[in-house]
## 1
Amino acid sequence: MKPRIEVRGAGIRFGALQVFRGIDLEVGEREVVAIVGPSGCGKTTLLRCINGLIPLTEGEITIEGEPLAAPREGVAMVFQHFGLFPWKTVFQNVAYGLRLAGASRAEIADKAQKFIDVVGLTGFENYYPYQISGGMQQRCGLARALSVAPRVLLMDEPFGAVDAQTREILQFELLSIWETRPTSMVFVTHAIDEAVLMGDRVLVLKGSPSAVHEVVDVQLPRPRNRATLLHPRFAELREHVWQTLMADARKAEFKVTQ
Amino acid sequence: MPRRNWILYATMFASLALGAAAWELAGHLTSDAFWAPLSTTLKSLGEVVHNGVLLRQAASSFELYLTGLALAVVVGAPFGVLLARITWLRVALEDYIMMLYATPMVALIPFILSMMGFGFAPKVLVVFLFAVFPVLYNTVEGARSVRPELIEVAHSFRSGEWALWRDVMIPYTLPFAMTGIRQAIARGLVGMVAAEFFLSPSGLGQMIMMGSQNFDTASMLAAILIMVLLGVGLMDIGLYLEKRFAAWRGYNP
Ligand SMILES: Nc1ncnc2c1ncn2[C@@H]1O[C@H](COP(=O)(O)OP(=O)(O)O)[C@@H](O)[C@H]1O
Ligand SMILES: [Mg+2]
């Protein structure tokens, strides 16, 4: 079976800046690929390419077998900055994707409410984003993405802007939501343990311009939950990814300081 | 809190009463041609209300004012968003807009007179010119400050240009446009009086002029009083609308 997302030899250049090149990536129908790399290595840019927001300068992307030209139906993104509309209530924000997809009023009311319940925002439907915490705002962003029943879910450091405790809670909630309806997911993060916890595979991006340095096959059992953190293989993998990422980072840092 | 409010209201009331007393006193201490007492002014106000002159003149002024103001909003706000979305158009027109915004509009009135003569249209143009630039300027600045991430969110959810305006550009820009409209409310009033003075005399402006020529200070002050009340009332409406549309920015609704 063809993978749902296929990225071949992807490269992006902004003027003189070559951000990454030669990236290959395949995501199956019920697969999560985590992408980890230092800040500025082009993770967000790669996701924007997969979303069809910006064109590649080299290589090509196909989704469900079709070459990508513009944002596709069935692909939804969760943003690091949440991307909520401050003038819309929680309900209106969640309903946004459905409305643009042309859903009927009854369908919107039904589905938006369903996903508000799924992410645990019941009772906050009429709140504005500025009235709720960062964690709740990201729950709202997640509900908005889930409500359009995406077959591809793109997550751009979704928990990067919330505090540590909230982040842990949200990680496990996302895992259990994913279990009830597994889809293709690309999960970008700069946190190594998060990448290992989420991904079936972890792509380590590194270098300048960055490229795939290693693909780690995670092979931790699903469903994943808090117990996964205690799995011996989890510690092993985290250590392995850490070594791959940090070895050069230390060298680079020392070079700068000297 | 209620106690504080009570003190504030008492202070406000005392201040207004003092102002009224000063007005009355000034009228008695000076010649009637210079300054009429409040009581005479109110009596004259009662007269012009009674014989329908005030209503007719105020209606004429109001028609002029509202036409000019409505045109300024209808043209200024959409054009402002358009300028913010289309870069080359903005770059091409920016300097002209700044120049016109900075120009004291009264200086253009003789020019408008020689171009368009007397009548309703040139007067509307004057009110429009007074009012349109704050609307335009604030809208452009507002629409330009739309966070690009939000536009990207819209594109990510496959929004077309029209839906982008409906869901992002217009709601984001509305509070900024309202700030401009509130300024336009005040400037438009100035424009109205200027048009009524310097083009064909009409409305409240004409009442003021005639009052001044006939040394009828009382009816002059009556017309001014109506104008002040009109301005204050409209400013309040503007402020209310501005706050209402800016609720999402975290202000008190
Ligand atoms: N539209 C753009 N124009 C020019 N440079 C950009 C643009 N978008 C991103 N960049 C640059 O590309 C690099 C990668 O950015 P980004 O993808 O946001 O990294 P990451 O998400 O991994 O932190 C950065 O150096 C950033 O400054
Ligand atoms: Mg990023």
## 2
Amino acid sequence: MGSEEPRTNFLRKFVEFYQTHEIAKPLIPLLLLIAASVALAPHYFLAPMNIKVILMQTTPLALIATGEMLAILMAGIDLSVGSTQAATAMLAAIITKSTGNLGLAVAVAIALGTLVGAINGTLVTKLKIYSFVATLAGLVIWRSFVIIVSGGRLIYGLSEYSVFLNDYGTYIPMGFLLALAVIIGVYLLMTKTTFGRYIYGIGSNEEAVRLAGVRADLVKFLAFTLAGALYGLGGVMLIAMGGFAVDPWSAQGNELNAIASCVIGGIALTGGTGHPLGPLLGAAILTILTNILVLLGVTELATQQIFVGIVLIAAAASLTRGLRYVK
Amino acid sequence: MEIGRGSSTTALSPQITEKDQVLLLAKDIVKKFPGVVAVNHVTYDLKAGEIHGLLGQNGAGKSTLLKVLYGIHRPDHGELYVYGRKVFFKSPRDAREHGIILVHQEVTLMPHLTALENIALLGFMWRKWGARFKKTKFKLYIEDILSKFGIELDLDAKVRDLSVAEKMLVQVATALSMDARILLLDEPTSPMSPKEVERLFDAMKRLKARNLGIAFVTHRVNEALEICDRITVLRNGFKVGTVESRNIDAHELVKMMLGREASEVYMVRDFSDIDKVLARTREEVPLIELRNIVTKPQSPVEVPLKNVSVKVYRGEIVAVFGLVGAGKTELGKTLIGLTKVVSGEIRYMERRVKIKSPADALRLGIMYLPEDRRSEGLIPGFTVVANMDISSLKEYTKWFMVIDRRKEEAAGNDMVKKLNIVTPSLYVKVPKLSGGNQQKVLVARAMLTKARLVIFDEPTIGIDVGAKAEIRRLIYRYSREQGVSVLLLTSEVDEALGLADRIYVMRDGRILGEFINKNLDRDTVLKVLVYGK
Ligand SMILES: Nc1ncnc2c1ncn2[C@@H]1O[C@H](COP(=O)(O)OP(=O)(O)O)[C@@H](O)[C@H]1O
Ligand SMILES: [Mg+2]
């Protein structure tokens, strides 16, 4: 009896933490996954090189997932992610090849991403096209853009991008730190500023936010634009983390990975709820899951995807618990 | 497969119903929601061959009562009898099996299917999964029913192409095809034109002649008088009474509907300062003026404004009084740019202005608090304090866009104290509060904006009596102390009389009269509402 007390107390605190902190939704599964991975394959999983690989693979996904989050928090969706990421990567690759100027290439990539986001935002707010449809159009158009500007060819040997892999002996690549800084910036924007407040409000009850006199269209436009900029940076990281090469079909389907990261990260598709760092953790979960499957010998992509799907279902179900029905 | 009755439906309903047999009896029903008792010890019965109206203002509890009868809500107290037998409905399925069908306020059909398909799938084919869809046979069957009841419908038309009345008739036909004996119609006429209403009433009369019982919900007095045999009037969840339509006139019914509040609940002002306020209407230019506004509705439920002219002066409380459907909300929304104005003008301090959005309006210092708190007012994912300062968030920033939490909290605490808001903390989500306190949060939202004109659309609907009085007092004090103008849109005559300096009476999108609220007689106002002049 007496020894039961502290334990139930701990359990209660744990449940309370889980219920009151939105970050707990992805954080606890992430910790469990890491613990399981360590238990299953301690020598491989904890090998410094493996940790570096995980961080590398998480980087581009975390960036695009954080962009996707902005759309989903407003109860919208962005399907243009993969194509935008490829377009920005391809443009950066071409500029790097022709000028050798990495700084310029990165700036142009982010600018292109921003432009794509601004177009998405305009379509949604001015032409009142559902974000699903507007960005679906973007998905096909920007993929075609990639194929046209690349002439259908692979660009490789972009060794300039190795700066993003430097780790100065820490096994933490610079690119990851850069992405982390940007994502923390987005986190601050979402939690500390009026802009973030309005985004959450739009996702929770857009009609009320509009009637309250907020310029919701401006907020939406800016959110889509910012998302685009993140995809642009995600495109750059795609080159750095993906073997210094871009082919016309790279990043294909990444919108789904981004959405999955958001859902696993606790960002409800109904909008308005979720912790801004959730997508980062969601991306890490997806990456570690694939990583540990490989270490366990599940190397076939199709089999891996089945596991990813199962995790997605579990995450989605936990997000909608308590709702009467969903669509 | 047998069609219609026969197989699974209406096992309990006898084949023949005699006129005046009591089909349905709801005894002493209570239904509570957080912070409000929506139906409060109401008894209601329905006889065969009768149309029994349910009349009441918005939030009176009409829809909730019907939902109890249809098994959507389970009552907290009270009993249901069908054909004299006591029943418990766990879901609408149970109600349907007893021959009860609810036709919703919002049309619930599948727009891309034909009328026939809708009637079959939602009606007699209901729950018969995997059965074959025998089009010709079904069509004959339904045509037979329709002709029996004298209802004309094009069964092959897609539902989306039908008029509102026809859609309603499709829903009625659905019920008939299931051999329903009890029809619950929730405000079917609200989106209809007068012609369409006639058509529906014709059909209802025929159903009545065939001994069906119809519960007919409306907020329109004249309709109730025209079609109903008996009328039960609800108000704030209570039953005011049940009357025979032939023994009552519109004036009396309106009085029942509006009820009479205890004067301490509504009389929140004193009249010592009224001359000072009214003097401004002679000495100053109006803060805001609508001149001959005509609007074009953007949806079937929107009431068009017909040549509406209204003035509001500095620091004045102006009430626009009218029943549901008078166009008060549309008047309010015109001032925040949400209606389509086809002619007329809006003037702000005599200067002509174009208001295109609520954000535009707010820049002029005009703030609108919606009637429908839950869908248009509150942001459910937000905390109490975030709901309060959403309209004035820029005032609580440190630099650029960074919110100053301390300043925000101070403002929130100040409002909680001033408005006496009962909440465990500023940081709970707003749905946790009771209706009255939620409304106070919205009032706080307006106060924090430092607006010059606040439009309150039915600020006391759906909240308990104590909170009503409190909110009225708050509005009065706020206006007087801050010199803010208030435009009060209300369907409660007492609220207008107890609060306003001037009162406009509105009906069908028109202003019928204007009164100075000084020695003003309640009946004078009501007469204008009922009879025009
Ligand atoms: N699902 C619900 N949850 C909470 N409150 C509700 C709900 N449905 C209705 N109410 C409240 O119950 C009261 C009566 O509502 P309703 O029956 O819809 O009125 P009416 O149909 O007469 O306009 C209102 O105060 C309304 O806000
Ligand atoms: Mg209703």
